[in-house]
């Protein structure tokens, strides 16, 4: 039995149309609300793991232990630290989730505010402002919806050191 090319084409096109219709059904406000709620839960779980100093739980929230984590010194902080060191220093510090988690459990939990969550249901961002003894700044997580739920794909954070605040009259 021979299959006609136009019949195969019609089946493929029909399948694609059905997929697009079903995909449109998935992108409803209720789904977005569920995703935002799930991302809020991810953020809360991470903050609780930090407070418990539970490195394994924190690392499990990343898509990979090698997920990139990049910190960047704010301009004034960079100037203050560079002047104190009297030599060139890097302005950004690349790391991995595994290394960042090890460092993060050694510090007291940050104070956080201005949590913002954006998602299209597949990818998203979670951003917030933090304040700690060692400084303050903003954190940005890029997140991805995996087969195992929402995971942190990468993290960026800015660093403003207290000495820079003092030179700017912030303290």
Automatic annotation (TrEMBL):
Statement: the UniProt record of this protein carries the keyword Signal: yes
Xref: InterPro entries: NTF2-like_dom_sf
Keywords tagged on the record: Signal
Signal peptide: 1-23
Protein name: DUF4440 domain-containing protein
Organism of provenance: Dyella monticola
């Amino acid at each position: 039995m021979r299959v006609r090319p136009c019949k195969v084409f019609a089946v493929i096109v029909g399948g694609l149309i059905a997929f697009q219709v079903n995909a449109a059904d998935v992108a409803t406000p209720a789904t977005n609300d569920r995703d935002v709620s799930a991302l809020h839960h991810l953020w809360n779980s991470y903050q609780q793991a930090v407070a418990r100093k539970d490195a394994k739980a924190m690392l499990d929230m990343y898509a990979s232990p090698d997920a990139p984590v990049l910190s960047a010194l704010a301009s004034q902080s960079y100037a203050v630290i560079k002047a104190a060191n009297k030599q060139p220093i890097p302005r950004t510090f690349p790391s991995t989730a595994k290394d960042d988690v090890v460092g993060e459990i050694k510090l007291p939990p940050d104070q956080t505010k201005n949590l913002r969550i954006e998602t299209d249901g597949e990818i998203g961002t979670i951003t917030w402002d933090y304040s700690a003894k060692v400084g303050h700044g903003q954190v940005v997580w890029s997140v991805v919806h995996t087969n195992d739920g929402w995971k942190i794909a990468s993290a960026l954070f800015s660093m403003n050191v207290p000495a820079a605040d003092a030179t700017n009259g912030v303290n």
